[in-house]
Amino acid sequence: MTLKLGVPSKGRLMDKTFDWFGARGVALRRTGTEREYAAAAEGADNLEVVLLSANEIPRELAAGRIHLGVTGTDLVREKIPLWSTRIADVAPLGFGHADLVIAVPRAWVDVDTLDDLDAVAAAFRRRHGFRLRIATKYHRLVREFLRAEGVADYQLIDSQGATEGTVKNLTAEAIADITSTGETIRANHLKVLSDGLILKSEATLFAAKDAQWDARRLRAMEALCARLDVERPSGLRP
User: Fold this and answer.
1) CA-to-CA distance for 130 and 107, rounded, in angstroms?
2) Domain check: are 139 and 218 in the same one?
């Protein structure tokens, strides 16, 4: 009986995840050829490594097909309804930092807050006959945030890439996107609202509450957490 650990399959996230585990005595490495999505772990018993895209890992955690996974907090909270009832935080990993923010055109000099955005959205609808468009791929997080802040006259436009360019291309009036430095937002003549921070995201090790947690796997999890010097999360039951 093994624990399945989902790890990002390529790029900086994979490298940083390998480094984080390696620094704690658990060596993760790719196996096979460059084109094979295969990996192995040394230094921890009963641990199987599965290479997946960061976007797939929340889905696999929610389904209980993997016991552990490394991905961004933004993806877990966006992709998994009632995520805290199904997923447990094990440890933040200290990399992959990014903010999910709302940004508007820099030319909107009188728009600095969500209250300002709400007023502009209402005026926009009266003038144009349709709601102000916000381009994003984070529909759940943005909708919940704006509802809580009382912003109503808007519509979300799906954007899976180059979101900052949607305003210039006249397919949206504002955006909600992830940013680490803000450079791309500024380069596209946008500005982040002063109270427009929706979520601070970070690469995190998560555990799936709905995975099969028999007594042997729970012991393996206890041993792994001790090796990694993190607390075993609550809510994992046989």
Assistant:
1) 21
2) no
Same domain? 123 vs 164: yes
Q: What tokens does 75 get?
A: 């993806």
Looking at the structure, do residues 120 and 207 belong to the same domain, yes or no? no
List, for residues 95-112, the tens digit of each pLDDT value: 999 999 999 999 999 999
- Number of domain units in the chain: 2
Pair of tokens at residue 51: 């290479």
135 and 43 share a domain? Answer: no
Quote the domain boundaries for residue 82.
Answer: 3-97+203-228
Give the CA angle between residues 72, 21, 12 to the nearest 5°. Answer: 50
Model pLDDT, residue 135: 98
Report which of 92, 84, 93, 94 is spatially closest to residue 234, judged by C-alpha positions: 84
Q: Are 17 and 7 in contact (CB under 8 A)?
A: yes
Q: Is the same domain home to 110 and 192?
A: yes
Domain assignment of residue 65, yes or no: yes
pLDDT of 59 > 90? The answer is: yes
Asked which of 35-44, 199-208, 219-228 is least confident by mean pLDDT, the reply is 35-44
What is the percent of the chain with per-residue pLDDT over 90, rounded to a whole number?
A: 91
Contacts of 156-161 spanning 24+ positions with Cβ under 8 A: 157/133, 159/135
